[in-house]
């Protein structure tokens, strides 16, 4: 799913046609965002009606369109029971009558987020976890963020229309506007300059990324290590947040990440694809986490719970788990467990007591079908210290589209 947000645009016809062809759902905001508009003046409402008529005529016959939203975050102080809040008049007096007439088969949500006693509810309607970045930023600067997997659990909701993930772009991207010394050197001015921030923030966005990456992945050893961790943080952030959503099906019915693509050459930021169209680390995390069938390991009440999340076909699967030490050595390997997985389900396939796992080890779990490997998940208590693989890579082969890497260690 792609959400076209209120600070964006009505996209080209080619965009909606391609989304329809590829089976990509689209939610469309009307073009207002994060502001107060003159909605008590008739000229403004009349202009909004014209815009709504144009948009409805242009997009309503596109198969990809799922629902409309009146704006982005204008109504953050609204509620289902309040009849007077910012954004309400624009939505109900100008846009809604047009949509109800021209596209009555689709839902119209007066704002994004929408629903609950206060919009951005975690129990009703849609929410934006980006609205809680103030609290999240404070957490990112803490000395100890080793409980980050549990902290992410606070941000579950019924449908998450904005979920933030932050990380650095690829080297290919950065070298178009930064030198090697800018990227790997001690001076960080170009990282700060090329990472879009908000002038209202006392601490710049890159500084939050810098702190959080070290808190989760370990202190930077050098410029190369720093760059890797600034990228990999986004992979881990998306993995943990999306596995949480998959585990919570059907309480949570979906997540849309903020954001898909950069609209400027950014060194780091919220996008999954950089300005030049190259995937960032989180893009690959999304590909893995969005597979029809995945595993997710969580630690709860002293038990490792291996969840099987299946949005694919019902089938008989084989589950195995391993205890692995910090040197990558397997110190325990379980016997295969046969698991029947129904379609459209998420359930705990296996529980393992912490006492079954040797001290200093973490859990790795594999799921296999009749053709072989399907997915691998892991859980490591505390922070995720990253260490160099050094000589563990034996061979590297490519046949054009696929790259094969063979390692002498797990």
What does this structure look like?
- The protein folds into two domains: 2-165 and 238-289, TIM Barrel (Alpha-Beta Barrel), CATH 3.20.20.80; 293-379, Sandwich (Immunoglobulin-like).
- The chain has eleven helices and 19 strands.
- It has helices at 13-22, 42-59, 88-102, 133-140, 148-152, 171-174, 180-184, 189-193, 205-217, 223-247, 281-289, and strands spanning 2-4, 26-29, 65-69, 107-109, 126-128, 159-164, 167-168, 255-258, 268-269, 293-300, 303-310, 315-324, 330-333, 337-341, 345-353, 362-369, 372-379, 393-398, 403-407.
- By secondary structure, it is of the alpha/beta class.
- 29% of the residues lie in helices and 25% in strands.
- The strands form six sheets. Strands 12, 13, 14, 16 and 17 form a five-stranded antiparallel β-sheet that branches.
- The model has no long low-confidence stretch (mean pLDDT 94).
- Helix 2 links the parallel strand 2 and strand 3.
What distance separates the N and C termini? 34 Å
Q: What structural category arises from helix and sheet content? A: alpha/beta
Order of helices and strands: EHEHEHEEHHEEHHHHHEEHEEEEEEEEEE
Q: What is the number of independent domains?
A: 2
Q: Overall pLDDT, averaged?
A: 94
The counted number of beta strands is 19
- Using the coordinates shown, work out and report the CATH topology of the largest domain: TIM Barrel
CATH architecture of the largest domain: Alpha-Beta Barrel
Rg over CA atoms: 23 Å
How much helical structure, as a percent, in the residues? 25-40%
């Amino acid at each position: 799913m792609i959400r076209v947000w209120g600070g964006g645009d009505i996209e080209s016809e080619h965009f909606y046609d391609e989304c329809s062809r590829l089976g990509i759902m689209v939610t469309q905001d009307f073009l207002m965002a994060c502001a107060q508009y003159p909605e008590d003046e008739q000229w403004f409402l009349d202009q909004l009606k014209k815009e709504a008529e144009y948009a409805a005529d242009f997009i309503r016959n596109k198969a990809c369109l799922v629902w409309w939203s009146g704006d982005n975050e204008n109504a953050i102080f609204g509620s289902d029971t309040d009849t007077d809040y910012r954004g309400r008049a624009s939505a109900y007096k100008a846009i809604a009558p047009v949509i109800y007439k021209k596209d009555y088969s689709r839902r119209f949500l007066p704002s994004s987020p929408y629903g609950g006693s206060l919009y951005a509810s975690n129990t009703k309607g849609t929410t934006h976890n980006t609205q809680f970045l103030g609290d999240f930023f404070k957490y990112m600067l803490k000395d100890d963020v080793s409980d980050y997997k549990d902290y992410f659990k606070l941000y579950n909701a019924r449908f998450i229309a904005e979920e933030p993930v932050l990380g650095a772009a690829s080297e290919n991207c950065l070298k178009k506007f930064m030198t090697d010394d800018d990227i790997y050197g001690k001076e960080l001015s170009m990282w700060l300059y090329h990472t879009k921030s908000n002038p209202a923030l006392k601490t710049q966005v890159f500084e939050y990324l810098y702190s959080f990456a070290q808190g989760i992945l370990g202190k930077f050893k050098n410029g190369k290590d720093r760059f890797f961790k600034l990228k990999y943080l986004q992979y881990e952030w998306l993995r943990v947040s999306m596995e949480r959503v998959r585990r919570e099906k059907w309480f949570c019915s979906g997540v849309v990440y903020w954001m898909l693509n950069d609209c400027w050459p950014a060194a780091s930021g919220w996008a999954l694809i950089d300005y030049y169209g190259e995937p960032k680390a989180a893009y690959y995390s999304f590909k893995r986490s969005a597979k029809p069938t995945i595993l997710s390991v969580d630690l709860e009440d002293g038990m490792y719970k291996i969840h099987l999340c299946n949005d694919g076909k019902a089938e008989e699967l084989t589950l195995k788990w391993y205890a692995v030490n910090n040197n990558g050595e397997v110190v325990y390997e379980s016997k295969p467990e046969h698991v029947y997985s129904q379609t459209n389900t998420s359930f705990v396939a296996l529980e393992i007591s912490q006492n079954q796992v040797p001290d200093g080890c973490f859990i790795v779990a594999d799921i296999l079908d009749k053709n072989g490997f399907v997915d691998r998940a892991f859980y490591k208590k505390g922070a995720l210290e990253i260490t160099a693989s050094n000589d563990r890579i034996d061979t590297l082969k490519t046949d054009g589209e696929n790259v094969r890497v063979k390692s002498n260690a797990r």
